[in-house]
What we know:
Blueprint: H1 10-14, H2 18-70, H3 72-76, E1 82-85, H4 94-97, H5 102-120, E2 125-132, E3 137-148, E4 171-182
Antiparallel strand pairs: 1-2, 2-3, 3-4
Amino acid sequence: MDLAQFQASPLARMQRGFSLIEVLVTLLIISLALLGTAGLQAYSMRLNQRSQFRSLAVFLAADLAERMEANKPGSVAGSYAQTTKTVANPLSTACIAAVCAGPNLAAADLVQWENAVVTALPQASWTVVQTAAGNPSTYSITISWVDRRSDTTHAAFDAGAQTGSNAAGTGERFFYTATRTIFN
């Protein structure tokens, strides 16, 4: 055998390391694709939590409206109306031990409902307004909460206009309003 047979041709010598470069480029492309997938997953989870908060707000407003329907004398009397609140009252067992009706049942319902709102939604606030008194009686239930925001171009929260983000600038305030008319 001749030593010349074992030596690489000039063309083969020029292509040494080319496979390594192909592998590195492939790894770069795969890593970028994985980073994009991870970002998409994080965005999807954030939207999922926002929809969960919205669903909870709808459920909580429907819960209070059903409590009003069940206590028609208290509803028509305006016992469920309250101004904007952010903190629930301590739980009362007055209507658990004894039978309640009218305004007493409305007060117990509101305490239980307020505690559910505070527990379910971050930085929650709520207002229950009796927009039409008498029979029929109409209530407007407004629930708001703060959710993390993805866009930082919004202005600070304006309490008068009820728009913008919270004071710390870390979230956006969302609102859900429901209206219920109750006939006695």
